[in-house]
Amino acid sequence: MSLTIELPKELEASLASRARAVHMPTERYVASIIEHALERQRHRAAKNLERSLDEIAAAVPEETTSEEMEAALEDALTAIRPRRVWRR
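Now predict its structure.
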């Protein structure tokens, strides 16, 4: 992917200086920062989902069957998924 980012000159100089300090081209340094941020975001989302599922599971009566749980999960996912409109 190729991307152009307009930054203030001070920030651009700071990024270039940091990239030089780690012996990387500035573009690669910025790409690594973005990659790391996206990975942290993905990890945080997974942890939040795990926490939410644990909270939901704790609220479910013990006599609930696996089939009932799966059906409830499928209903919940259906309710939150975006509606798609297919056009030709």
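The CA atoms of residues 74 and 80 lie 10 Å apart.
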